[in-house]
Write a structure and sequence with these properties.
14% of the residues lie in helices and 31% in strands. The chain has 243 residues and is α+β, with helices and mostly antiparallel strands.
């Protein structure tokens, strides 16, 4: 299970802020965000070496897309396409609205169940892939929201129940400031709590939090992406080249 935190603030200079921890098998090889796909100029994303896709990326139009598993659907399955191709398909589009419309027409049965978030400075859409039929889309309203393997803000997720109030209680990030992300970063890096509630998952049977992101989209089209190539309590966050 991964974690994604999203803050939408229409009419703010930074209308979209996003923080994410990627949880995965720690022996599954991956590459940090970069322009790994020559056939997709302008796309910058982390690359999963096993499936060839990504868990999160952006394009030069200012669209960000991220995919998470649904409960009980970790890993690949025979006859199913890699969910890592879904963010790349979304990033083929110049707006979040266009990407969400295109992906809502896909055959959800071609993939194991998924959660997909597609956003830009104007819109944010959550798409649930139930493993059959078509993905179900819903607009993400303004405010602070958390997504795990469950639906947005679902208190049935013990991680959401514990940590969403913490993100809502602290001061929102200020991407222009040197320490502008510190309050969110502190929550994202927390390893404490009963099993199943940790947001920064300790290694458990070779599975745990492997990397983290802090991303901001500006109203004028600018982007900032800080990436930690390891657990966020141990690895430094460094800027991702978006040129």
């Amino acid at each position: 299970m991964c974690t994604l935190v999203l803050l939408r603030r229409p009419d703010h200079p930074w209308p979209l802020l996003l923080a994410a921890n990627r949880d995965e098998r720690l022996d599954r090889d991956w590459d940090p965000p970069a322009a790994h796909w020559p056939d997709r100029p302008g796309v910058v994303a982390g690359r999963d070496r096993a499936g060839g896709g990504t868990w999160m990326g952006v394009n030069r139009a200012g669209v960000v897309a991220a995919v998470l598993n649904r409960p009980g659907s970790l890993g690949p399955a025979p006859g199913k396409r890699s969910r890592g191709e879904l963010p790349l398909l979304a990033l083929d589009h110049a707006s979040a609205a266009a990407a969400a419309e295109a992906l809502a027409a896909l055959d959800a049965g071609a993939y194991r169940p998924f959660n997909l978030v597609v956003a830009d400075a104007r819109n944010a859409v959550f798409l649930r892939g139930p493993g059959v039929g078509r993905p179900h889309g819903m607009e993400v309203s303004p405010g602070t929201h958390m997504i795990t393997a469950h639906d947005p803000d679902d208190p049935a997720s013990r991680r959401i129940a514990r940590h969403l109030p913490r993100f809502r209680a602290v001061r929102p990030p200020e991407p222009d400031a040197d320490a502008g992300w510190e309050a969110w970063r502190a929550v994202l890096a927390d390893r404490s709590g009963p099993a199943g509630t940790e947001i920064n998952v300790p290694s458990q049977g070779g599975f745990g939090t492997g990397c983290a992101s802090l991303l901001a989209l500006a109203a004028g089209g600018g982007m900032s992406w800080l990436f930690a190539a390891g657990p966020p309590d141990l690895a430094p966050f460094r800027p991702v080249s978006l040129a």
